[in-house]
Amino acid sequence: MMHGSSNFLSKPVDVSKFDVIFAGAQKNVGSAAVTVVIVPNDLLGFDLPECPSVLEYKVQAGNSSLYNRPLCPRIYLMGLVPEWIKNSGGAAIIDNSQGFYVCPVEPPNRSKMSMPFCIGNVKGDDALEKRFLEKALVLNMLSLKRHRSVGGIQVSQCNAVMIEDVQKLAAFMKNFWEMHQL
């Protein structure tokens, strides 16, 4: 099974169901060049011909993942983010707005990290969306740009957005909805 990197750490995963988990985690866990690899001990040690030792999981595990001079600050940060995520939460308003906010992506296909939505109806009301973005900008809510494939507004929770920011956005969305109910 393969999932996009934008969903990494968006929900608990039973790692025992997978033989190997390999994740380019830069958007959700830390900075660029960070990769998470989870391999059970019983899969370590396979002789892989022509594989450089830096990619041999047994060599990495035997050297506490320090075989090839890692970028320590990035690894340290990556270790802090899951702890922060575990101790934080989020807020959802899109599906509870009686159709004022509409996510054009079916629930099973939605990303937990990037949330597109239209305002007013499934195709979006350009005037309402423009007003929403203008008011958001006044409140210093940046980068709520149009989603490249579905239009509307896009909220990104990558890079461990602070819970206070999520709560501020949810409060703004609720207030905007109450002021502009159709």
TrEMBL record:
Protein name according to UniProt: Phosphoserine aminotransferase
Domain Aminotransferase class V: 4-95
Organism, as annotated: Mandrillus leucophaeus
Biological-process GO terms, alphabetical: L-serine biosynthetic process
Reaction it catalyzes: O-phospho-L-serine + 2-oxoglutarate = 3-phosphooxypyruvate + L-glutamate
Cofactor: pyridoxal 5'-phosphate
UniProt keywords, alphabetically: Amino-acid biosynthesis, Aminotransferase, Pyridoxal phosphate, Serine biosynthesis, Transferase
EC number: 2.6.1.52
